Amino acid sequence: MNFLGIEKEKIAYLGPKTSFSHEAAKKVFPGNELIEKKTIAEVFSSIEKKECAKGVVPIENSTGGSVPFTLDELISKKFFINKEFFVEIKQSLLGNTNIKEIKKLYSHPQGFAQCGIWLKKNAKGIELIETTSTSKAAQLASCEKNAGAIASNLAAEEFGLKIIQKNINDDEHNSTRFVVVSQSKNKEGEGKKSSIIFGVKDEPGSLFNALEAFKMFNVNMTKIESRPSKKKKWEYLFFIDFEGNLSEEHVKKLLIQIKENSVELIILGSY
Known about the structure:
By secondary structure, this protein is of the alpha/beta class. The chain has three domains: about 10-90 and about 175-180, Periplasmic binding protein-like II (D-Maltodextrin-Binding Protein, domain 2, 3-Layer(aba) Sandwich); about 90-165, Periplasmic binding protein-like II (D-Maltodextrin-Binding Protein, domain 2, 3-Layer(aba) Sandwich), CATH 3.40.190.10; about 195-270, ACT domain (Alpha-Beta Plaits, 2-Layer Sandwich), CATH 3.30.70.260. Mean pLDDT is about 90; it is low at about 1-5. The chain has nine helices and 15 strands. Helix 8 packs antiparallel against helix 9 (about 250-260).
């Protein structure tokens, strides 16, 4: 509770503690109770079960691309995006030994993807083991003599590891886009950006017709990505971000055109 006696919302995030998602959650919800979850699916589940009001999840990295687990959860039609923000990601090599003695190297798949150039030069013969988070990677490395982790400097402090080499990510401007998700959409008119998901009809030109609407109604599409629908083999859904609010007339016309050329349309909201 705050000083007025009003209970603040509980916020779920992808743990464990010291993960980049934890850092992101602290940044956007500094005064709220933050609830650690083991997986992205558990973050969404905690919102669905009303255990937490909102969740903070990674959706895209500037080097490693989109986070498929988050995209797959958004397909469920039960959640809205309320906010987006960016956190600069600095990856370091952590361990209890020197680099020549490391036999195993732990990290999240995104951690490995963000450090591809460094790995090619320095990790020949080292077993790369994927973990659910960079923080989990540091925790595992702290328990083994000849193991290392690609994780944050904060994780080194938390688990008593040495920082063997700082900032080993390929892109010095590496950042991750995080979103705040909930089962409630923002107030009408709030936000200058919107996101949708749709699947097209299995007929010639259906995707073209849907996308042509962006030019027709002068809407700037900032991102498009496809994911398997998981409902039918070789069927795909398209995730799109665009400039504009869902309450604007030209955006409403855009969505009508897309709906006419799609089998499914999921509105993720404006933010």
